[in-house]
């Protein structure tokens, strides 16, 4: 979420710590501080995710974070966030209000596009005006998945289902297959009549299965499977 960052406080106490609690990318205080596990550099969550859309390297030291999916190497630092909120009076309240204002301002755009709402359900963005939703997504165990398009050779519906431009996703492990299907439908701009199947290792997954359940009972059991977990999607085949 692109928001205006809180100006740095120049009191004698906080000034001494500004170097450690500011983001290298936006130069504001770290909001939802997120650490790159490969080099331990920390940035605002929204800043580093946006950076990784165009690069796989750490913006501070230049080390390659991951060959294909750098989001897999990110970890939220809730302890540092609490320290920053205690050091900077009013920062928590100000950022919370900015998030509320942001979502109110962009509500009509989210409804028309749909992606924002589904992204929040996926845990891709925990920025919401509701603190309960925020805490729920932030405290969820995270999982990286790859969504691959599986064509069925000759079925007419194949032409309507394309591959995602960005197939690697970092999201909550509590996300269900049903939500993944909604996400795909919106991203691929599918009509309501086009239904999808989501498969793991060639087996169709039920809509209420969570990613955690699939990982533990389907993906992890195969010793040759690697992280991230790969889910395939295809247009539903009607044998009737």
Automatic annotation (TrEMBL):
One of its GO terms (biological process) is nervous system development. Transmembrane segments: none annotated. Keywords: Metal-binding, Nucleus, Repressor, Transcription, Transcription regulation, Zinc, Zinc-finger. It is found in: Nucleus. Component of a PRC1-like complex. Residues 23-61 form the RING-type domain. This is Polycomb group RING finger protein 5-B-like. InterPro entries: PcG_RING_finger (IPR051507), RAWUL (IPR032443), Znf_RING (IPR001841), Znf_RING/FYVE/PHD (IPR013083), Znf_RING_CS (IPR017907). GO terms for molecular function: zinc ion binding. One of its GO terms (cellular component) is nucleus. PROSITE patterns: ZF_RING_1 (PS00518), ZF_RING_2 (PS50089). It comes from the Eukaryota. Component of Polycomb group (PcG) multiprotein complexes; the complex class is required to maintain the transcriptionally repressive state of some genes.
